[in-house]
Amino acid sequence: MPDMKITPLGAGQDVGRSCILLSMGGKNIMLDCGMHMGYNDERRFPDFSYIVPEGPITSQIDCVIISHFHLDHCGALPYMSEMIGYTGPIYMTHPTKAIAPILLEDMRKVVVERKGESNFFTSQMIKDCIKKVTAVTLHQSVMVDNELEIKAYYAGHVLGAAMFWIRVGSQSVVYTGDYNMTPDRHLGAAWIDKCRPDLLITESTYATTIRDSKRCRERDFLKKVHECVEKGGKVLIPVFALGRAQELCILLETYWERMNLKYPVYFALGLTEKANNYYKMFITWTNQKIRKTFVQRNMFDFKHIKPFDKSYIDNPGAMVVFATPGMLHAGLSLNIFKKWAPYEQNMVIMPGFCVQGTVGHKILNGAKKIEFENRQVVEVKMAVEYMSFSAHADAKGIMQLIQYCEPKNVLLVHGEALKMEFLKEKIEKEFKISCFMPANGETCTINTPTKIPIDVSLRLLKAEAVRYNALPPDPKRRRVVNGILCVRDNRLSLLDIDEMCDEIGINRHIIRFTSTVRLEDPGPAVKTAEKLKNLLSEKLEGWTITISDGNISVESVLIKVEGEDDSTKNIYVSWTNQDEDLGSYILGLLQSMVQ
Amino acid sequence: MKLYCLSSDASKPCFVLSFKELLIMLDCGLSAHSVLNFLPLPPVPSTRLASLPNYTPPHHNDPLLEGELKECCGRVFVDSIPEFCPPLDKVVDFSQLDVILISNYTCMLALPFITEETGFKGQVYATEPTLQIGRFYLEELSEWVSASGEDSGAAKRWKEAVHVLPPPLADAVRPRAWRRLLAPQHIARALSRVRVVGYDERVDIYGALDATAVSSGFCLGSANWVLRSAHEKVAYVSGSSTLTTHPRPINQAALRGADLLILAALTQTPAHNPDHMLGDLCVHATVTLRGGGSVLCPVYPSGVLYDLLECLSAHLEGAGLAHVPLYVVSPVADSSLAYSNILAEWVSATKQARVYVPEEPFPHAALVRSSRLRHARALHDDALSDFRQPCVLFCGHPSLRFGAAVHMVELWASNPLHAIIFTEPDFPHTEALAPFQPIAMKAFHCPIDTSLNYSQANKLVRELRPRELALPDQYAPPAPASSSAPPPRETSRPHISADVPTLVVRRGAALRAGTRRVAARATLSGSLAARVAARELRAGVRGAPLRASLSLRDSRLELHSPPPGAPGAAPAPPPRLQCAPPDVDALERELVRAGATDARVERGADGCILHLPRHDTLVHVDRLATHVFCEGGADVRQALRRALHACVPHL
Description:
The complex is a heterodimer of chains A (about 600) and B (about 650). With about 600 residues, chain A is an alpha/beta fold. Chain A contains 16 helices and 30 strands.
């Protein structure tokens, strides 16, 4: 019970194909179900046979949680639900549910229609898969079953991206997906409350980077684009249809407006309008500024940015083109790249991370010649610029998130091993918590303290509070309760002795001691009692001493004075077995007084 | 647990619950019935209103009252800026409130009166649509009520003379407590205090309990609140609907099995079925438009308006009247219409499905694009420069005391072709129209109130099975007449009749509710639990003494392993539970072993006495207690204790 196990099937010391298995408290949860864009074989999907070599997978997984719509986080979902046959619950946010099928379909077309692969999921499968998805809203606490609870937090990154808090019993985990700790032009910053999870599973794409200020990067980007088009060059910006594209469009749009530029800016057809419609509809997921001004002016209605047509590729003169997909691994952006790459006045700006194996990754590593499957070789003479616009948290952001939610352990995924190593050291040093970074297929076991819910009797607590508050304040003093633990129907409670007797239906047997002290003190007995009380008050400071009808009580010890006027008084001191210490102390006190 | 009621208007509720040392306000509704006693505030000066005769009560001579009252068609109105009736402020000190939970935007308009300049330091929670649309309502009100008059000339004198005024002024409830709307900056500050929550989000209230807003199906973002601690559950049901309209449907499961269910804001027009009323409205509108007249609907800027636009536009299209323009005039019309279309997560499943296409959830965006629907901030707005008649005009305020509707009624009242259709249930339409009489335009009353009616509410209470129910007195069964005869049929009104203990609360009342708490929830650390070896004490019950250190952080209790005692000192022994009298023979043997060989035993009917003459000691043993009268020294007593310990059976 107090263990939790984490096994990355993808994204373990790696970027792409995010898929992490989490098991705790007897529940198995799959976090993301992505595909790897750098592979064309079975390696592109997570190895589901790890979960169960054969037979139905549904019984092995209690739920699947998708953090956002990027294909490296949701790309294998139709494969899992329609081809492997998973039928259990799937959770994602509303925008993710709306947008993911479009990207999946887009990718399917590239894979099946351009590359002619079979044995891939169909359009219908995507639709069927999305139908099974339960959409969640931010901060809504969803009970997957009686024990498993999940809750989404805003993650920035892309529209609808979420971090998930997952709880089973007293164990909890936060999985970040991809997130962004600084607000950008259309999204806000990730936020989480101090939920103190046992484990934080965080992405670490930019584990070693501390990015320079956002404003500088934007100015840099605009300057490069402007310089290139001024010289008559063509600028290609490979983007994914949703997300970074919208931010860059807003950026270029405002710059073109301000500088009164006339160079054409195009956005690859198809997704543009639809994508912007999604942004309009889910404007509550964008940042404060856009939300505030959307009634007057919708930021996603662009004046300068026109739809692109394939015939424009060979148009002469300067232009800026946004084309999909973002890593130059297929589709229109790759076609444009092939045409424009051999001319040095042109430029390609890679605004995001590229996974290994893609053309984007190759040119960023300085490849001057790219060979394609059909033996076609393209020489790269155009300028290649990398601008880190990917909305991931940098090292500072990751540390900030750890500070926000105060986890007891951290586990790094979705990053490169070397960089992780560095961050791991930093986290362990700075926060004094353990940090893990399992590779794919490697299982990481984390011990968590057991916490068992228990009902504590208010009577017991109140008695303790009275005792505690009677003592002089001392922040170091530990508070201690003494009670009886009672286990009934698997429920625990802590009771005081009388409640316990009621609980098991027995009468308590009380042992009481009484001793007598004889005192020569002429006068009425009540007077003697008064004197005794004053005397005891002096000696027993801080104890409650009351007197009524000549009976003195010191907490639960009773003192009674009897005797005729003008004769010897009998002082009876009586206490129960538990109060032996106090009782015998008082008795001793009285006896010493008499002598 | 204690429940206070601060509002006399059950549809604009305001309760305060004191629970676990917290003061929790549930809703803060602003009753606007009081405005009906005032003369309308026209957006442009009206000669008719200005020339109404003064009213002076007969046999009452107060020169200061001069000019405060005007008469129109036999009704007396106060000529001043309208005043509202905020929740009672004397029962609960607002500065002591910890939390305000808001159920929907119709029940939050008194928020500025609670939070501003009262020393309020707590938190306010509402859903995002509630905050936004509540803001529209308050901004609209404040624009109208403050735009149309300077601060002077507040009529006060009449409040001293209420007893000599004719009804309904004479029946005004506590007019001295009526207040004007607060200034815009106060409203803005009050709204800035609101923290936004989502449905089913568990909000931690100072560690003492969880509050969760669950969908109530009444309007966009409307919520019922569930308060839960480890042992208690309170459900606050306010403004709920089981009908299918545009918002998300009601979540009943979350309300089930509460210790206390508080029920408020049921329908104000139980005799009218909202579906039929919507149908009637379409018919009346069509007939009027066909006759060449225009239709005026005094409405709020959100809520049923969206349904009206959707149904009416479709109906008019079917009736061949698609060319008739629809106008929405309100200072917040543009925001309200735009905002409703970005709330995909708060609308019904069918509307939500449209977003995935992607299309707007409400059709009014398409109506605006095709220019069938126009919206404007005010009647003199440029957007209305090509104002065409006949048309359908939606504008506020439903009370007809301020806003664009005042001007339109003044303008159209004399034309019998025009029609005014009342849809909002908050105001009786005859009273709303009273200061405009005599009128020739047609007036229809089609109140659309989708809140629970009494039979739906009764059914809901039966299904939710609360342990206890709390109701405003308006909803309670009428008190039986003093005589034995049943009340006459015609006076019996619809009410809630539940077979659970019911608390009836009226304004100003404070009632004790719910069960007494006996236990608090804590967590037991695994290491401590592992050290406890519980023994079976009775079938199904196991127990063991437990000593634990207690830590209290953020109101959360945790039990850990106890601190080690001071070095050298033995840890305090766990408490012992002696459960039966000692076996006297065994006791005797023990004493002999301890050196007391002179024990004599006398057995009686219900116990026995053991005598140790040498030590001057008597031991009384009976069924429930053992009493030792020891006159010997401490060593004798300690020996006796040891002996008793050894032979008194314990757990």
